[in-house]
Specification:
Radius of gyration of chain B: 28 Å
Number of helices of chain A: 14
Distance between the termini of chain A: 13 Å
Helix content of chain B: 55-70%
Order of helices and strands of chain A: HHHHHHHHHHHHHH
Order of helices and strands of chain B: HHHHHHHHHHHHHHEEHHH
Oligomer: heterodimer
Helix content of chain A: over 70%
Largest sheet of chain A: none
Strand content of chain A: under 5%
Shape of chain A: globular
Number of strands of chain A: 0
Distance between the termini of chain B: 61 Å
Shape of chain B: elongated
Structural class of chain B: mainly alpha
Strand content of chain B: under 5%
């Protein structure tokens, strides 16, 4: 319990650093950001200008400290005011539309990639030097291909030439409206298969490589040898003895990788015109939509921090060694 | 010229000349121990570095030179065809490799430098310094980098090479720092460090001359990793348009190819070469890194040298081969000899007859 509190404190510090960086970055940059936004969007009300000035720290207002306190209040209520680009809508309303898309697609494909990659890594490590292991350079090449490049080629071949999958977008807006009916869900799933395949293909190799290396190190341990000596079935030795212990760095990586996964999703959503937060972040950058940029950055950061906290807790529950080490502290 | 440069070397005190030769032969020995994959990776990388160095000089055209020949396939005049504005793709590629590698190299250098400074300082000073620096490192590690990169580059007025290098290196050091800190913690308790301290060496002298030379392989691995990250991130950033789009890097070529609908119109010569170049550079770096990994981790190395005993491949996971497995191949004379030499009658006989079962079959 004490351990969990300690980790919680750490992630709170991390969150505070991110929040503070988010506060200072727009203030450290030259130029009047708000006026630029107002000039771009003439239909904005003066109230929107006030909100923007408060958020971005431009124009006449209180001391830096007052601004900071005000900003912290905004962050804690997760209230970033109206979105200057899609004006009557607030930033929160926009995000509420987009988050489910990213979460569903990227979350599911990450879990699939993790499972397949770890499985292949177990096999490659168990038979290190074997046929599967020899194919590693090919996997390194797959990992080296820039994600968007692979995705573009897949779209071109599978969606445009052979029409196996629909081209981009989250669903066909002209036939379906979002809601819980079979037509829409089926259509959305249909649209998500190709992006999911590309994510799984490119991120699988990293999991495989890491798992393979840890596995090779683990099977050299005496307890694995002892398990084999006892005459246990290979399956039991592999999964209960070797892989279970080799999983730790993998799990830890899973928490950290969530950040990179969301990052990968940025480019994926651009290439597939997928209506998630990655595409929204890039659009916001293109439009100088600062409130949206800040909100998305904080949202992604919080998601990653919470995921890491959960992974830490799972690790402590799952591994007696970690538990012993943490309790001894 | 060669005479001049070698002359002072021979006049140096023997010890120092010897140590230089020692360093060289040490490097050669390291190279010999590198696995084949890593060597292949090193050669592949060398090829691209050479292309980056001499590329811009031998490029047949200026990369931005526009000609009326738009969207031409490969021909004698344009070996890799032309873009939508009639620019020569080969010339752009050669310039692009240079720019991308240059950026990655600087990011690798700065970020690894920061990693060494943070990692070594934290571990060497210990106490409250360690706590604070480790906290900083871990915080930077969990804050997602690419969204922050996009946020920073999106807010920055200029999006040229220098801001990108600074932002990428500012966010690329935590991994290396963590690994280097762990290693330093291990080394700083060794006897030779204690000895250096006893002789009254300054802390910085111990760090520079005793500690860091012992962490070279780790620092090299961290450098390679950072370069890999820098290439991936910079290409992705350029592709989404967050780069100086008037310059030619591998990422911006892909950006223009994408916005020129090269893929939809099957102008493969425009988008395939830069994509493959990035993939090959990435592969080379990953290969090099696994090689460095194997140097540091004997178990990974041994896997490659798994040997055949009596015509059967012995997997590292298999129990030590029992001589019984070999018995099956013994000739008549050898069997006869063996019946004298073995220690006990009970030994091996059943194993000799029983079919050899491989432990841990997964395939």
């Amino acid at each position: 319990m004490q351990f969990i509190l300690r980790r919680l404190a750490f992630y709170l510090v991390a969150a505070w650093v991110a929040i503070t960086a988010n506060f200072f970055i727009p203030r450290a940059l030259p130029g009047n950001v708000v006026e630029a936004i107002m000039a771009k969007n003439p239909d904005l009300q003066p109230s929107a200008q006030k909100a923007l000035e408060a958020l971005l720290g431009v124009g006449p207002q209180g001391s830096l400290w007052d601004q900071y306190v005000h900003y912290l209040g905004q962050v804690f209520t997760f209230n970033f005011g109206p979105d200057p680009i899609n004006f009557p809508a607030t930033v929160n309303q926009m995000l509420a539309q987009e988050v489910p898309w990213t979460l569903a697609l990227v979350g599911i494909s990450t879990i699939i990639a993790f499972a397949i990659g770890t499985g292949l890594g177990i096999m490659a490590g168990w038979r290190a030097g074997g046929r599967l292991d020899k194919s590693l350079p090919a996997w390194m090449f797959v990992q080296g291909i820039p994600y968007f490049f692979l995705a573009l080629v897949f779209i071109e071949v599978l969606a445009v030439k052979f029409r196996v999958f629909p081209i981009g977008q989250g669903f066909d807006a002209e036939y379906y409206t979002p809601g819980w009916n079979w037509g829409f869900v089926g259509n959305a799933v249909d649209h998500s298969i190709l992006p999911a395949i590309t994510i799984v293909l490119t991120s699988m190799a990293g999991w495989m490589l890491q798992m393979r290396n840890v596995m090779v190190t683990t099977i050299g341990e005496d307890y694995v040898m002892a398990a084999q000596g006892k005459g246990l079935t290979s399956r039991r030795v592999i999964f209960t003895y070797a892989a279970r212990n080799a999983m730790l760095p993998q799990l830890q990586g899973f928490g950290l990788a969530l950040g990179y996964v969301v990052a990968g999703a940025l480019v994926m959503e651009l290439v597939f015109s997928y209506p998630g937060i990655g595409l929204q972040l890039l659009t916001a950058v293109g439009n100088d939509d600062y409130p949206m940029m800040q909100a998305i950055f904080l949202l992604i950061t919080f998601a990653v921090l919470v995921a890491n906290l959960l992974v830490d807790i799972v690790l402590v529950l799952a591994d007696p060694r970690v538990r012993a080490r943490e309790v001894a502290r | 010229m060669t005479m001049l440069s070698t002359a002072p070397a021979t006049q140096l005190p023997g010890a120092r000349a010897g140590s230089r030769r020692g360093a060289l032969s040490g490097l050669a020995a390291t190279w010999r121990r590198l696995p084949v994959t890593a060597k292949a990776g090193a050669f592949l990388l060398l090829f691209f570095i050479l292309a980056g160095i001499i590329g811009p000089q031998v490029a047949p055209y200026a990369p931005s030179l526009q000609t009326p020949l738009a969207n031409q396939g490969p021909s004698g005049a344009h070996l890799l065809g032309t873009t939508a504005t009639g620019q020569d793709v080969l010339s752009q590629l050669l310039t692009g490799i240079r720019l991308t590698l240059e950026l990655a190299f600087w990011v690798g250098l700065i970020a690894t430098g920061l990693a060494v400074i943070f990692g070594v300082t934290a571990a060497f000073l210990g106490g409250i310094w360690d706590e604070v620096l480790s906290l900083l490192t871990n915080v930077f590690l969990v804050i997602p980098a690419l969204p922050l990169l996009i946020l920073l580059l999106g807010l920055m007025p200029g999006k040229g090479q220098l801001p990108t290098i600074l932002v990428l290196s500012g966010l690329g050091w935590p991994w290396g720092a963590r690994v280097i800190r762990a290693q330093t913690l291990m080394i700083r308790n060794r006897d030779f460090i204690a000895a250096a301290r006893e002789t009254g060496e300054h802390s910085w002298r111990i760090i520079v001359f005793e500690l860091i030379p012992n962490e070279v392989s780790l620092i090299a691995a961290s450098f390679v990793n950072t370069v890999l990250y820098a290439i991936g991130a910079s290409v992705a950033l350029a592709f989404v348009g967050l780069a100086d789009l008037s310059s030619f890097s591998l990422g911006t070529i892909l950006y223009w190819a994408q916005s020129g609908n090269a893929l939809q119109q099957s102008y493969w010569w425009w988008f395939v070469p830069p994509g493959v170049a990035v993939a090959l550079i990435g592969t080379a770096l990953v290969m090099l890194n696994t090689g460095i990994d194997e140097l540091g981790n004997p178990r990974l190395r041994d896997v490659r040298n798994a040997t055949r005993i009596a015509g059967r491949r012995v997997w590292p996971t298999d129990p030590t081969p029992v001589v019984g497995a070999v018995n099956g191949h013994r000739g008549r004379l050898a069997s006869f000899m063996h019946s004298f030499s073995r220690g006990s009658l009970l030994e091996e006989e059943p194993a000799d007859q029983a079919p050899v079962k491989k432990a841990g079959e997964v395939r």
